[in-house]
User: What shape does this take?
Amino acid sequence: MSAHIRNFCIIAHIDHGKSTLADRLLEHTGTVTLRAMKSQLLDDLALERERGITIKARAVTMRFNRGGKDYELNLIDTPGHVDFHYEVSRSLACCEGVLLLVDAFQGVEAQTVANAYAAMEHNLKIIPVINKIDLMHARPDEVAEEMMNSLGTDPDECVRVSAKTGVGVDELLDAIIEHIPPPTGDPDAPLQAMVFDSNYDDFRGAITYIRVMNGTVRKGQKIRFLRAGSNHDVIELGRFAPARESCEELKAGQVGYLICNIKSLGDVHIGDTVGLASAQGTTPLPGYSRPKRMVYCGLFPSDGQDFTELRDALERLAINDPSFEFEPETSEALGFGFRCGFLGLLHMEIVQQRLENESDVDLVQTAPNVTYEIINKRGETVSIRKPQDVPDPGDIEEFRQPIVRCSVIVPNDYIGAIMKLCQERRGIQKSQEYLGAQRAMLTYDIPLAEVVYDLHDKIKSCTKGYGTLDYEMVGYEPADLVRMDIMVNGNRVDALSVVCHRADADRRGRAVAKKLKAEIERHMFEVAVQAAIGSRVIARETVPAMRKNVTAKCYGGDITRKRKLLQKQKEGKKRMKAIGNVEISQKAFMAVLSDS
Ligand code: GDP
Ligand code: MG
Assistant: This one.
């Protein structure tokens, strides 16, 4: 029945050629003619292209004849970055096989390993592919050996290709047909289809990507998202080949899309199961989880007037990206803004960049923080999304932080530098393996907060760019953490509170106090800037009282000049915030936040 279908993903480290290979497969199967070929068809968001990463999975159906038989190959694209592990795992759940693509010069990298392990967990057939064999410095034999050592793939099974020139791509198509098993599943059983992606079309609403595992879904049926519990009419269904092609039904084993008049992507949950509304008791497919926002930050318009504009921009973003969330937040220091949640640091950067590109609100961002857990004295577990919400030390029984398992792959020369770096970041070494004669993989458990702070940049800079990092969540563990506050004349400045390790609090507190002092203008009285943990002051700076009258230097007669000066002062005041009896310009907070 479905013997002619092959469902697969390409998994690779960033820049190893996934998009280029996808283009070549589309071309060699005749799905897209060379002339009509728009380079890198699968990465259709301008931003993805700009950053060279694929953010959301898409699927393309290729029809293709080999040895007198017609085949249907479904290529499911996967996001390539650490923040999107869950999305990758849902795409893999829709496949029977993967092409594990490795650059013939770069060799095995951190995301190669992470993705290969994920494919093994799903029991998928792995076809090892070595790409870029056209490069002058290609070292395909060594790379095949690295793959064998780190992933257990057979060097004889490696297909060698150049996605750039097309060499080896026909052989790869043969390998796909020969080695990836066709899907199983009963087209007459009750409908169960996995939602592995969605995107938003301004005219049609949500487009839901599905893989039918069992049963058949037809146009006009009423379907049900089994986990969300909502019912919808199937207005259109079909496939992308690569243009949208509607059809009457999708059967067990097939991959395609549904359009159901859904107005927000928030209503379509990746990993949910589509069943028929009429069929009672259909079980949802396993493996579903909700998006976990691990990193939060506050976003405030630098001019309070732009609040509604910022809210509209965030709403537009959230329609297209259900993993992003935001809620209003008020800060004494920064005014009205939003607390925003992201899957990880890269996700945060992507959202920020979209905001900048798509709206012209000038933004102030507070330092990103991870989600913490606190067990209070009453034994309740509280999830903390912003430092201000951490209770006073007396009410904390246990303070817990998220730990991630980091895999770093580096040339052997840099092993020492990476070990030092990971230890400084409170990492605990888990293993060290050699991938070949030249490279090693180090595994550490490190607090996510340390990773978020700057680990990736630091790894890149201490390995001249050769080190690669991947990480996955391990869980929450207790740690000696404190909320450090910044006080101005005894009043807490909410936007400047941070959570940090107790041993780092002194150093960080001193640095922030010093910086803020430099930004505060003199008042008629002395202003104390302090860093404190609970009621214990750990650093203090003093802004001395003003001595001179500002207008004094405008000797006597020049009244216009005096007026101008007063006018200027008044304007400056508009952007002033009062912290107790001390006036601080918004610019001062921005300066302190810009690199804390
Ligand atoms: P992705 O991040 O895995 O999607 O990688 P891309 O497909 O965007 O490729 C990354 C870079 O490698 C681009 O500059 C491609 O032109 C280049 N590239 C991809 N495949 C080959 C190849 O076979 N040979 C050579 N020389 N360059 C390639
Ligand atoms: Mg790509």
In short: DSSP finds 13 helices and 34 strands in the chain. The pocket of magnesium ion (ligand 2) is lined by residues 18-19, 43, 54 (CB under 6 Å). The CA atoms of residues 97 and 180 lie 5 Å apart.
